[in-house]
Structure formats: C-alpha cells, structure tokens
Amino acid sequence: MAAPGNLKAIGFALMSMGVFATHDVIIKLLGAYYPSLQVLFFSSLLSFPLVSLILLQEKMPGTLRPHRPGWVALRSFCAMMAGVGGFYAFSVLPLAQVYAILFSAPLLITLLSIPILGERVGIHRWLAVTLGLCGVLIVLRPGAGQALSLGHLAALMGAFCSATAAVITRKIGGTERPLVLLMWPMLGNLVLTGTSLGFDYVPMQLPHLAMAGMIAVLGLTGGFLSILAYRIGEAAIVAPMQYSQIIWATIYGWFIFGEALDLRTMIGAGVIIVSGIYIVWRERTRGSDSTRPVIASRLRTETVTAPRSSLLQRILSPRGNSHY
Question: Given 184, 223, 254, 280, which is the most exposed site by the fewest CB atoms within 10 A?
C-alpha cells in the first residue's frame, strides 16, 4: 500500500500535468492565429515579471557568469530549441500525437547519459529504449501513407533537445547557480524569437495577448505543483505521472479541437509509456542517485515558459541546494 506522502504526491503530480496540458492547449489555440515563434516570444516576455519575483528569493551570491560556459551555452541552446520545437508541434499536430513523441524524452535521456554522464546502461534498459523507439516509429508511421511533416520533426527536435538539456542540467547543476541555468535560456529565447518578429509578425488582439500571459502563469503553476509532488513523494512514484498528459490530450483534443482518437498513436504511446515506466523502475532498483538520470531529471518536457521544476526548487529551497 502506498504511503500517505506518495498518495498526496501523486495528486499534486496529476494536477501539475493537468495544468501543463492546459498550458499546451492555449499554445495550440494561439497557434491557429499567429506564428509559433511569435506566441513563444510574448509568452516568454510576459513570464519575466513572474520569474523576477521568484529570482528575488535567490540567496546565492554571484552573477550571471557561468562557471562552465560551454555546457551552459549548449544547455541554453537546447532549452530554446525544445521550446521552439514544442510550440510549433503543438500548433500543427494533434495533441495526443505530440505528447506521444515527447514521451520519448526519458528514453533519450537514458541514451544521452552514456556519453555525457558516463552512465552504464544494462541490457534491460537497452531493450526498454529499443522498445520505446519502436513505439515512436509506430506513432510516426513512416511508409504507412502518412509523410513525416515539419510538425513531426519539430516534436522530435523538442524531445531530443529537452532530453539533452535535462542531462546537462544533471551534469553541471551542482556547480552552476540556478539563476544562471534559468536566465540564459530565457534571454537567448527572447533574442531569437524577437528577431523572428521582423520577418513574420501578426498584430495580436488583447484577449490573445492575455492568453499568452496565461501560458506563462500556467507554466510556473505546473512547476510549483511538480515541486510539491517531488518534495513529499518518491521520485520513482511521481515521475511516471507525466504520462497522464495523454489522457488530458485525448479529452482536450476531442472536445476542443475535434481530434479523433488515432489507434496507431495510442498504440505507439502505450509502447513508449511502458518502456519509460520500466526504465524508471529499473533506475529505482539501482539505488545510487548519481546513476539515475531519468528519475533525477524531472520528466516534464522543458520549455522556456515551463522551466524545469528542479531549478525552481533550488531557488526556493531554504538552502538553495536541493538535489535534482
């Protein structure tokens, strides 16, 4: 029987994923009217006042100068590209299909932990990764009458870049201030997306601008609920709750966007979810926290408007040094 703390943690995690799913629905709604980079720009811009309030809690002395600039630059680029890919994919693809592809991120974290963290992956996890990647192929269905679109490639880029950012965070998180890891992607994102406005800009109506602000609010709210879940529950119990987003995607997709249930997507998502949960279970049984990159990386796909909850937790922690 699950401990009371784990039951509460599951509740917070499920609420967090529901909030994040609503965050993604608004992205899709705005993507029908505006370029995805424009939506990302205004969502990021409007998140700054909220993020600034959080950063006021940062107690660690220092500047924005990173200790390991190369890794910070790579992580910042990957976080930016994860946001770009995710926003575009949500704008043009069915919700459930995007989530199914993004769910491959934990599999990619396992693979990337080998060269970046020096992690050793056993035969069981290799089989799980292989099975999960087969699930991705089921979702993408190459050669089954549906050509790969730019949206599919954007979702794959989002998953890969989010996984890379997560593993790098794990590698350098003990030496870099959370302020550095949080702010550099946001600043880079504003430069990138702001530049794009000169090429493709559509004037935004006030209600739509307010919706862009809601993306920022929901991203941070989901992060805080995730923090609560990880503080009171076991990471191995909380992490698989991210897969509940497929339920929200089905509900939202059906009632708001008229998206019919896609059997191949559901089968592929099921395969990916099973393999992801198995990897988390295998890592839980290994014991040492230093060799559990998937559990430690907080599995929600990171975007600039929904920063990694572990960074927020470090800032808000009384000692500013909570573990990943």
Answer: 254
